Amino acid sequence: MKVAIIGAGFTGLSAAYELVKKGNDVTVFEKDQNPGGLAIGYKENNWKWSLEKHYHHWFTNDYSVLNLAKEINYKVIIKGPKTSILVNYKIFQLDSPISVLKFPLLTLISRLRMSIVIAFFKFYPFWKTLEKYKASIVLPKLMGLKAYSLIWKPLFVNKFGKYINDVSLSWFWARIKKRTPSLAYPKGGFLNFANCIVGKIRERGGKVLFETEILELSSENKPQIKFRNIKNSKLEIENFDVVIVTTPSFLFLKIASNLPETYKNTLGKLKGLGATNLILRLREPFFNDGTYWLSVCDKTAPVMAIVEHTNFMDKENYDNERLLYLGNYREHTDEYFSMTKEQMLERFDPFLKKINLNYKDNLIGYELFKAPFAQPIIPTNYSKMIPPFKTPLKHVYLANIEQVYPWDRGTNYAVELGEKVARLISKNA
Ligand SMILES: Cc1cc2nc3c(=O)[nH]c(=O)nc-3n(C[C@H](O)[C@H](O)[C@H](O)COP(=O)(O)OP(=O)(O)OC[C@H]3O[C@@H](n4cnc5c(N)ncnc54)[C@H](O)[C@@H]3O)c2cc1C
């Protein structure tokens, strides 16, 4: 079977790997210079390892991606870095039942109540019964207004903005259920891991074409794609037996022709946020307590999360630089998407100085990365909104980030999705 896969993110790569293993003639088309999609990395000349443009790690129960790493003999590092929250410009470790019980800004009753709610979600398996409820309505009732207002509401506001009242309780359940105390990371970085999968696809005869953008996709009896080589602008048209699209749905709508209006409306209802990450390269640590991940519980803060990557992976891999992400989720129309890195640092500077007054004395350099579609919004009853793999276009399949549910999107689920769609195609062949 001659298969085209649009996108060399982890969905596209895992689908391609599954299909070449079964002897299919596979070509992956990727508009970027490198594989990895949202988990793509970049590398400064003096670094040994690449770094993700947007912070990434795995949980130790991310079995699909960990099994893939095992299968291709890729080394994974497991560590237990410190996770904290920022409240009133003070940092509190909050990553274990003990740390919740010790949290000083709530009464003992509030702490116990919050611990019971978290423990309940950790052990409760029936997510389907939760999906009809809104997190913003149910959580204050379960945890009490004080705990919700102090910790969870600011986190929700910072992450979801105007969508805060849309998010389903099943999304919150998934976040609690899935979290593991230890985290995992592919040695060398996600880019290296993605390149290794590309190598395995090519070893088995598959093609992975970079800087090749799909412009049009149609299907009368067989799918046909029109693509452009970004380097030399050369246009080509090619027919395939099957096409798998792994881009977010709005990009699928842009390239596909002759889709029925009802289908377009269904996909059009799916909402998502973009992400921006300003990465600072520092000579000294930003946090003085070794925190890896800091969630900012302050609705007025210009940053949602601060992630000191080198409090997770060894700084030695990055020429002893300390690497700090300043992350936000925003709509792609938000002003953050039109800011330069200089403007963004200027905006964040007063806030950052309240945590580490002298961080700028240690600044080596900084970069800004933007992804216009990064986090689907999961409203109530999302299970009824998920588009199927099969599309109205003959032999064209959609396998993308918006089909990941009830778990929150991640490279693990991208791998699972890629493997699932590949199995479906093999079965239908
Ligand atoms: C800020 C942030 C933090 C995250 N944190 C984590 C984390 O800690 N752990 C984790 O596992 N996951 C995390 N994720 C999520 C994870 O990155 C994604 O779920 C996953 O990478 C999605 O993979 P995908 O292949 O489905 O889609 P994508 O990665 O979006 O891949 C789609 C690919 O299609 C390509 N493409 C688009 N249009 C075209 C076209 N016309 N022609 C050719 N190619 C095209 C794109 O360039 C891209 O490479 C995070 C994401 C973000 C943004």
Structure, explained:
- Helix 2 packs across helix 12 (411-428) and helix 5 packs antiparallel against helix 6.
- Helix 1 links the parallel strand 1 and strand 2 (25-29).
- Among the domains are: 2-50 and 188-269 and 386-428, FAD/NAD(P)-binding domain (3-Layer(bba) Sandwich), CATH 3.50.50.60; 96-178, no CATH class.
- It is built from twelve helices and 20 strands.
- The chain is of the alpha/beta class and 429 residues long.
- The strands form five sheets. A seven-stranded mixed sheet has the order 8-7-16-17-18-15-19. Strands 10-2-1-14-20 form a five-stranded parallel sheet, with helices on one face.
- Flavin-adenine dinucleotide is lined by residues 6-12, 29-32, 37-39, 54-58, 213-214, 246-247, 251, 255, 275, 327, 371, 374, 400-401, 409-412, 414.
